[in-house]
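thought: user wants a sequence for this fold. calling inverse folding tool.
action: design(structure=
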């Protein structure tokens, strides 16, 4: 899965450049030029303000003045490189100095480039575009590498699931020898696994370029018979711009998991949270939280300490665990995540969706 910085980057239509300079006139001039060249800009007038802004904004590139009071550009860059969330953001230093010592210091603290003031406008644009292109390619390569690792893990998991839950029941069906055997249940399990494998393949082959639609969260929940679990006023104005087939499949698969582990659906309640993150405008992520107060004995863990279930443990739940893993993959496909937490014998499933153009209508 991509981290939050990568997800924010991928959702943007234009790169965001943060300009850091203690002279407001410099900020205004440079911001106007970059805006006119097609970039989105933000700015900070001190080192500390820059650090605070970067933590929230996660810009695609930083133009950083070296000479600032209280905290120099070198110190700002050094701190950025110590932060896991900001260490890979490219920093181009803006400096009135052209001496060898300052240039070497700029590279030593982690800068990718420097531009001497007064700068040539076309040279500045060219350097910015070069480093943005490198940043984009780096993120894409990291995502590909992570995806390959996930695919290998999924293939291994899928093999074990197929062996344990498809092949073994088939063998049992073959060697009944007159013994009592729940043939119907085994056939239902086999069909369930085959359907899930089919769903996985369907997700892998989806073409999102032509499949984005406005989707009502309330309608999705209603179709999955969940409206009794919450006050419908809470989410009647929540809409997503996304692939409707994937979102439907996500909730359908998740509800199958919840029904399999809960004693009754009347013990399931929903709550909704959204929180903002910023680019040049406010964007929202939506949380749908399933609280399950009574779990079937087969799924109650001996350790009642608060914890997040690892996937390896969830897979021990057999068909139910596989449903959860499919739902989690679907959530990641929609730039979100799905987690399962326990508080004693109560479970909490958190679906955190980072879908494009999440909004609340009026």
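)
observation: tool returned 362 residues.
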């Amino acid at each position: 899965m991509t981290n939050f910085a990568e997800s924010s980057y991928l959702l943007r239509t234009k790169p965001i450049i943060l300009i850091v300079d203690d002279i407001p006139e410099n900020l205004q001039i440079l911001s106007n030029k970059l805006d006119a060249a097609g970039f989105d800009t933000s700015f900070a007038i001190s080192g500390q303000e820059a650090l605070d802004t970067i933590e929230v904004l996660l810009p695609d590139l930083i133009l950083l003045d070296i000479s600032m009071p209280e905290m120099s550009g070198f110190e700002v860059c050094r701190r950025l490189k110590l932060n896991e969330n900001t260490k890979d953001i490219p920093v181009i230093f803006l400096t009135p100095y052209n001496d060898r010592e300052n240039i070497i210091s700029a590279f030593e603290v982690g800068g990718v480039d420097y531009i001497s003031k007064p700068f040539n406008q076309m040279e500045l644009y060219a350097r910015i575009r070069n480093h943005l292109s490198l940043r984009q390619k780096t993120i894409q390569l990291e995502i590909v590498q992570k995806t390959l690792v996930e695919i290998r893990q999924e293939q291994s998991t899928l093999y074990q699931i197929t062996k344990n839950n498809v092949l073994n029941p088939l063998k049992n069906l073959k060697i009944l020898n007159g013994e009592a055997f729940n043939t119907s249940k085994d056939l239902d399990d086999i069909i369930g696994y085959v359907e899930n494998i089919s769903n996985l393949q369907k997700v892998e082959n989806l073409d999102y370029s032509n499949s984005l639609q406005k989707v009502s969260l309330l309608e999705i929940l209603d179709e999955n018979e969940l409206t009794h679990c919450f006050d419908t006023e809470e989410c009647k104005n929540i809409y997503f711009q996304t692939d409707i087939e994937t979102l439907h499949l996500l909730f359908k698969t998740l509800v199958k998991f919840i029904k399999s582990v809960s004693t009754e659906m009347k013990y399931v309640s929903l709550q909704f949270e959204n929180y903002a993150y910023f680019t040049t405008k406010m964007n929202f992520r939506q949380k749908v939280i399933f609280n399950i107060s009574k779990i079937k004995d087969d799924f109650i863990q001996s350790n009642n300490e608060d914890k997040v279930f690892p996937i390896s443990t969830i897979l021990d739940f057999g068909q139910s665990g596989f449903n959860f893993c499919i739902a989690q993959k679907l959530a990641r496909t929609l730039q979100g995540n799905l987690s399962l937490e326990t508080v004693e014998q109560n479970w909490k499933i958190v679906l955190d969706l980072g879908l494009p153009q999440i909004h609340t209508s009026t």
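thought: summarizing for user.
answer: Here is the designed sequence. The first helix runs from residue 4 to 11.
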